[in-house]
Amino acid sequence: MSRSLSAIARRAVTAQETGEVFLLLLTIAHASLAAPIRVVNDLVNHTSNGDLFTAFPFQLQLPDEHDESPPRMRLAIDNVDRTIVASLRRLTSPPTVQLDVCLASQPDVIEASFPGFQLQAVGYDHLVVEGDLTLDDIITEPFPEGSFTPQHFAGLFGI
Predict the structure, then answer these.
(1) pLDDT category, 36, cuts 50, 70, 90?
(2) With contact defined as beta carbons under 8 Å apart, do 40 and 51 qualify?
(3) What is the pTM of this model?
């Protein structure tokens, strides 16, 4: 899959050394939340496209390459402030998560975006909030989607 990068990001990626810093912006959204939770993996807050991303160090463990199950990423956010835990406790269904990559020098230019994840199996302690980031499991979806039944295809059955 090809990805279009800005000229600055392309130079930073291909340079032997660079002063550019890539930021990972994480947005956790749910209908029950008053406002989405927005965090950035940095030590200072950043504003991107008018949204404030609060500095919360976090780590992503990328998925293993197994054919038996859909890919899962593991998200671990430092529990430096109890607001994330309090917000996630009130939810009755998994929130959606979007990951965006930008440069610190141009935070309004999203270099890559990964929407559509669900945050599941959330756990927390006094140090960290952890959960699995998953995509919809299309492997278990029926194929083909429809079935040739008299209800949907009456002409085939002479009805």
Answers:
(1) very high
(2) no
(3) 0.78
